Amino acid sequence: MIERTFSIVKPDAVQRNLQGAILKMIQDAGLKIVAMKMIHMTKEQAEGFYAVHKDRPFFDSLVAYMCSGPCVVSVLEGENAIAKYREVMGATNPAEAAEGTIRKTFALDIEKNSCHGSDAPETAAQEIPYFFSQLEIVG
Ligand code: CMP
Predict the structure, then answer these.
(1) Which numbered atom of ligand 1 lies nearest the CA of 8?
(2) Which residue range is the domain that position 7 belongs to?
(3) Does 16 count as an annotated binding residue?
């Protein structure tokens, strides 16, 4: 099934000039970028995006980090794009991520883990329109 998923190349990676290398890993996996832009999130945008985590102990630190510098947000399309991108990213904690994954290769720690991807079709359906209008997504 052809799906779309939402991706963030996070501030730790953009700050180290790694967005090109990370997008190459995404493209090499066969995922097609159908929308992309660079943003610098406000505190309100980051709080809204991660609202599902608002009661977790790491929430305030996560929000501060996500606002600490620019991100590259994109929409990826392809066969089983959600699961495929999660495979390309590796486990949330880079210490547990498989060799060759984005997080194993580049992430600094469980918070500064270089990338985000939707975890299910329902989250992709919420996350994509949070940052992109229909007009910004190419067919
Ligand atoms: P992400 O996949 O974007 O989803 C939530 C984010 O919270 C996660 O990546 C990390 O950047 C951050 N985070 C920080 N600490 C934790 C933790 N203990 N468990 C899960 N996510 C964490």
Answers:
(1) 3
(2) 2-136
(3) no
